[in-house]
Sequence to fold (316 residues):
Amino acid sequence: MVAKKPQQNPLVCHGHSRPIVDLSYSAVTPDGYFLTSASKDGQPMLRNGSNGDWVGTFQGHKGAVWQCVLNEPALLAATASADFSARIWDAVSGNVKHTFPDDHIVRSVHFSQDSKHLLTAGYDKVSKMKIYDLHNSSSEPQHFQAADSIRFASHHQNDNLILSTYVDKPNISVWDVRSHQIVKALETMDVVLSLEIVNSNLFFTADGKSVKLWDASSFQVVKSFSFPHKVESASYSPEKHKLAAGGEDMWVHLYDFDSGEEVDCNKGHHGPVHCVRFAPGGESYASGSEDGTIRIWDTEFSSKQDEQHSGNGVAL
Fold:
């Protein structure tokens, strides 16, 4: 008799009233690691990364928040909002430290490695990307001109380069911070909905039905996966050799990175999955959905089940 494969019961995090559009884990700190969430409800939240417990909400934006990230020591948070602003927050007290007004929607924020600068990107007609000096927040930012609205932007290679993706067109642009110019264009078949900096050597993207791992130095594709459905977000754990992906089918899929075999198909969300990210070390991964919930999944769930069934002598 073939035993029915058990379904995982994730940790479910409530609190948002509208769709989750971005999730981000902090690095490991002396106090553990943290998970931030951005939502169309305009209430970015901070949680304990290991168990999903709510820590606090950064209150003040007047529109949807598209991204919320922490700096390396997790003492500062940055948010990008549809209210035409980016904000810096004290992640301990929850107070606003500075607001950077913009001329249009801000879609992306990213700290430099030393937390001295903040990169913002979005829909501004004149300057799509800006770099602000956080030690002199009233000074004029560096401006980067782009013809198209930017979905996501991130510092790269010791903050000497920037990777950017677009709202309405394919491809990834590689910018030189010193010249403020695009120095390389990486071709994709569809709009890149997800870009994750895995480490200094690798980054991970999802466009259309394709997920790709890129070499961060050569900008060549290391490995590519194809899916039967559109993927909105994907994440890679080099420690666990696992790939997590979510999209319009409302399920969160976990794959063995080396073989491409599906390890888990996690059901529970009641809307498309907009964001998926592995926790530091890869022991778990979080998903955020149109349904307004965050779910935290155990990466080793199937392995633990197989060991349990093997120990009990159950035929699979």
